[in-house]
Amino acid sequence: MRRGFRLSRGKTSAGNLPGIHRETGVAADTRADGFVVFDHVQKSYDGETLVVKDLNLGIGKGEFLTMLGPSGSGKTTCLMMLAGFETATNGEITLDGRPINQVPPHKRGIGMVFQNYALFPHMTVGENLAFPLEVRGMAKSDREAKVKRALDMVQMYAFINRRPAQLSGGQQQRIALARALVFDPALVLMDEPLGALDKQLREHMQFEIKHLHDSLGITVVYVTHDQGEALTMSDRIAVFNDGRIQQLAPPSDLYERPENAFVAGFIGENNKLHGKIEEISDGRALVRLPTGELIDATPVNVHRKGQSTLVSIRPERVEFKPELLPPGAHAIDAEVLEFIYMGDLFRTRLRVAGSDDFVIKSRNTQGQRMLQPGEKIRIGWAPADARALDPVN
């Protein structure tokens, strides 16, 4: 059971954070707000090419914010600038209202968890945790109490006298997490901390980290390229690409209401149909596909007839049973190419409007029909579940 140390998790939702647009979760002007603030921050390594381009971002106190994106998108560089291991080329970073561009890393009071754990191999677990306290001049009796408390948090006190080489990968990660928390930092940064763990342990650690965040009320900035990890753990997610934030929103908004084609394609599995806008009226777009069919979608960033669009539809939102097709939605012909049994789900790949990569997912419920390769069916979806976006250039 989660203990609610903070007054309310709702305080970190996009709708209540200062400077965050209530509907889209996209940052408005957060430079004057936030516990952590990036104000017009840029980073270049060669003096010409910007790997971070004019970043404006406010992170609320007690928030769990994830920076998510592919390799080279700028997310890790932003984390390293916040930690003090990289210097911003332009702009200012502030922590709790204090500019920190010129503050060395060890004086920022930030906890850090790395993917490779970064534990001292010649020290015991207890010594690893005591080290940052000793550096801060804390008395031995106080150090011992804080070390015990931190190890109890991650259920690792029994291993206090072991060395890192005597621990499993998951145990080392718990120790690295405890060391980041031992001096009670107000901000903890995590750089791909679970990347070296196997799938089952990684998923378990996601919940452990989230439970610790909930109970302690600390601010966490987390970097990952794993979309599922970001959706599971975060209050908000900043999706990075090409040195910019493409969308900033709570996980449900990001998944259900992507604001551009990159976000729609990067977050979760997604069907994409290219077409042209035939008509837009009453918050509904009529899209003509290359094969001539008409489909309905919600217009997001398309505005006029004849405009090219990419229609995004999640596989679990597509229906193939006639009685379940949404009223008023256009149905479209499809041919079953492949049926895969996944236990709790059926995954069916279809040929739709000339594309062989259209997927639907259906729950394995009692009486659910297994579709057969070669079978011809009609599929459809609610217009609200299909989003007409500007295509990626």
UniProtKB/TrEMBL annotation:
Source organism superkingdom: Bacteria
Pfam families for the chain: ABC_tran, TOBE_2
Enzyme class: translocase
Keywords: ATP-binding, Cell membrane, Membrane, Nucleotide-binding, Translocase, Transport
GO CC annotation terms, alphabetical: ATP-binding cassette (ABC) transporter complex
GO MF annotations in UniProt: ABC-type polyamine transporter activity; ATP binding; ATP hydrolysis activity
Record PANTHER family: SPERMIDINE/PUTRESCINE IMPORT ATP-BINDING PROTEIN POTA, SPERMIDINE_PUTRESCINE IMPORT ATP-BINDING PROTEIN POTA
Name of the molecule in the record: Spermidine/putrescine import ATP-binding protein PotA
Highest classification ranks of the organism: Bacteria, Pseudomonadati, Pseudomonadota, Alphaproteobacteria, Rhodobacterales
